[in-house]
Amino acid sequence: MKKLLATLSIAALALLPQVAGAQTYPERTITMVVPFSAGGPTDTVARLVAEAMSRELGQQIIVENVGGAGGTVGAARVAQAAPDGYTLLLHHIGMATSATLYRKLPYNPLESFEYAGLVTEVPMTIIARPDFPADDLQGLIAYLKEHKDDVTYANAGIGAASHLCGMLFMSEIETQLTTVPYQGTGPAMTDLLGGQVDVMCDQTTNTTSQIQAGAVKAYAVTSPERLEQLPDLPTAAEGGLASMQFGIWHGLYAPKGTDPAIMERLSQALKVALKDKNVVERFAALATKPEPEENATPQALKAKLESEIARWKPLIEAAGVYAD
């Protein structure tokens, strides 16, 4: 009995630093990894959320861009980080699609992370260079079918939101275009504006200002209803593509094994951040909005990830698009 009590006492003492750490968390700067380049749509979302969460947590959250391989390099870095709550991951729908897109992942999207909550779901827009011939979505589809060998489709690389949207769009119109992958959204948009490529599909966080300025020709938004910020832009469903209703959702994660008390602290801070006036206003300007409080939870994010893996798996397999 004495031996048993001694063993239990040692075990309890070993847990004390962990418990104390959870109770005082956070005590230093937190790093939020964005697995894409700076200035892109996900980076914009992350910086707004990080700033608001910093105020709530009382410690600075710095955003670190760790791009490469469709977001898998940055995700792997967080999966392998110490589970102490000081390294977080803000990732988009690519967390779900990577499970099928990549044959060999250095992590398991469902098992290598703890979940804090959903952040936002950003609509996509179908756009083209400003002097593209077609004037509406039906005209665009007809033109693409007739000139498919001459039209170029830009994306920000395999696994990027623009890649996924393009893959779905081409599947819906049953027309394969010549794709031009870039190292990030910025270079792709630059070449679209300059007329070096023809068509693109990307998040409103990256396209709204360009559409409002008339710098690109816009054909549709993938939200169920028209956006207040872009009232003249029809939905894809209005143009005959009912299945193009989807958005690029974002979630906040931590390495597997992070203390539940820390995860609860992060989830609560996320809920507060998503109600922050600046976040709400800035998101609105980008034609999106924060997730409601009931979605800023571990349960909601996990359920979303599971359902999205199941949704995209057959589409990716049918397209035969894989990355090593």
UniProtKB/TrEMBL annotation:
<keyword id="KW-0732">Signal</keyword>
<protein>
    <submittedName>
        <fullName>Tripartite-type tricarboxylate transporter receptor subunit TctC</fullName>
    </submittedName>
</protein>
<dbReference type="Pfam" id="PF03401">
    <property type="entry name" value="TctC"/>
</dbReference>
<comment type="similarity">
    <text>Belongs to the UPF0065 (bug) family.</text>
</comment>
<dbReference type="InterPro" id="IPR005064">
    <property type="entry name" value="BUG"/>
</dbReference>
<keyword id="KW-0675">Receptor</keyword>
<feature type="signal peptide">
    <location>
        <begin position="1"/>
        <end position="22"/>
    </location>
</feature>
<dbReference type="InterPro" id="IPR042100">
    <property type="entry name" value="Bug_dom1"/>
</dbReference>
